[in-house]
Amino acid sequence: VIDLEPRIAALAAAEPGASLDDLHHEAEALELELAAREKEFTARCAAWVAERRLAVRGAVEVLRLLGRNPGEPPELAVGSGQGFAEGAGAVAGMRQWETALAQQMDAAWQDLAARGSRAEGELVSLPLSAMRREERETATDLESRLDAALGSTAGGPEERLRALFEILESCDTFLVKLSEEERSARERAAALRLRLRELNESGLDRFCPQDLVLRASALVHGIPDEPRHWGSVAGQLAAAEDLLQNLEDHARRRAAADLDRGISALERRLQTALDPAFAGRARGLLSQVEAWGHDRIAPALLRIRVRMLAPEAGGSER
What we know:
By secondary structure, this protein is mainly α. It has helices at 5-12, 20-55, 57-65, 84-124, 133-151, 157-201, 210-221, 234-272, 276-292, 300-309.
């Protein structure tokens, strides 16, 4: 465009006696050349913008992966109505957009690095000696990979961001799994203590072999309130659950059979009872037992009262 300036200046400074036809032809030629240069300029601007859009695509994708919104880069379509101003404006806009993109990339790295430091601290604090072998190996591997990702200078910014994000996702998955296992183990331990207490307080323990009740009690009460790592008591939790479930099932069967014998004995006594007071108490007890239905074990006090009114029912325990 610069080499057209002298010709334009000469045309503007033409002498009064110059040929109008010559001046007109020169103006038309300059106009055509200027339009061609403008078209070429906008095409080159559009090509440069398109090239830069392609170059930043990886950075845009990784920022979106991180939950950020970098927006869309500017574009310039070659066509009618596009001139020097539009081409230059698109180039300037793209450069400004890339500057903002670089700032977002820096901020994203700072956020991920801070998150990585927290995750590294959690991994370092894990009680490896109390963990299962596969957990120890996973924790050690994640710590090593995270440390390498935080200190890496290989590859471009988007590659480093993506690599750090992926290892952090693996760390989070592992740490959440450990946290869920701890929560589940705490709940299981609390449930075991409650079930053992209910077995004893309901009197169902007298229908079980005493050595197995003691064994279950030792397993349940032997679970620490705060073990170094809850995975280390997983086997103890499972053993206590299995044993307690067997004791509960056995006790319920024996207690139900004992109650059935008491009911049968009480009904027989009721058929020959001459004492109205006894008959009233017996019918009342039988009504209370019936109200509990066949899906639930009657309370211990109710079972004892049946046995007291029908002592000949005896009772088989353990």
